[in-house]
Amino acid sequence: MTLRAWGEVPYLPILSLRPAEMRALEELPNLTKDRLLPIIHLRPWVGSHQLENSTQRIAEAYGDRPIVIAMGEREQLNERPVYMQLDALRDASEGFRQWCEFLEGNDNYIPAIQFSPHTVQEEAQIARLFDLRRGLAVIIERRAFRAIDRIAQRVGERTRSGEGVCFIVDFGVAGRDHLEVAAQAIGYIDTIRQYAPAAAVSLSASSFPDNFVKLASQPIYERQLFNALPDRDRVIYSDRGSARIERQGGGGGLPAPRIDYPQLTEWSFFRSEESGFAGYQEQARRLMANPIWNPNLRVWGTQMIERTVAGDTSAIGSPQKATAARINLHLQRQTFYENPLAAEDTDEDWSG
Known about the structure:
This protein is α/β, with parallel strands linked by helices. The chain folds into two domains: 6-248, TIM Barrel, CATH 3.20.20; 253-352, no CATH class. It contains twelve helices and eleven strands. The chain has helices at 19-26, 30-35, 51-62, 81-90, 93-104, 119-130, 148-158, 178-195, 221-227, 276-288, 300-309, 319-335; strands spanning 14-16, 39-42, 67-71, 109-111, 136-141, 165-173, 200-206, 217-219, 235-237, 258-262, 266-271. A four-stranded parallel β-sheet has the order 1-2-3-4, covered by helices on one side. A hairpin with a 3-residue loop joins β10 and β11. α5 packs parallel to α6, α7 (148-158) packs parallel to α8 and α10 crosses α11. The longest helix is centred in the middle third of the chain and has 18 residues, at 178-195. It is globular and about 60 Å long.
């Protein structure tokens, strides 16, 4: 038993608990929210002091739908209690007891396991979370690829050969070498199914660029990677929702105003040399005059671009709002990748 049948999930975006991504998720149509299945890594919500602010923001964005919850990377500690709360959830003692209790206390959370050098603790955690009968996510990042066989064996032995389990193989950065990476991915999928034949598998990566000078467009290489697999049976597409793997550091001032427009297999970038809202408005006009613009895709991100063109300064006037609009559009399109016309079948209006 699982909260969501993996075979019915077309898209597993890995999202960060940050303002642009949460707003983009929150503003999706309900039909889209019901269809995709986000993976959220826990971290402090903005400047909050308590972990409950993070869980409340997830609920505001996605309601009580089933959602995969994973532990985020340890960040630089400060005195806020939320950092100590997160560290307590990372404690491997007693089979990650506090992590398991946290997940048990949130009925709509599909758990992702944590790894530990202490095999006994990790195995106890797997067994306890599997017994919740909600499904189980196993996120394997590139640094753990050498241990895929051992991880798959350990999970398979404690989940009746991977029953209700999805392994997310996270390549991190995707690029032009997607065909070569696809060959590696096939090997990893075969290894997982050797030990957990009942499990689903997902491939994830991000290729969103960090430099847009003289860059008008770029293929979505993670989608190309997925499409290069010769057999996609029980394999689910995943990405970062068009966000980057690494967050850009501070310094250098605000980036040049830019409107990004996601399509099914490519991003288009409209970058301005003019600063402030006028720059965003100028590029939004350029986009809407371009043949790639689809006025039938009626989602919040579309409305934000249209309002910007109309001169509404509360629409897109900052990098964060531009990012939220892009992610919202990308999530909508990738959720309905196999049936693009269904992405246009929305039933809601937005007030901004």
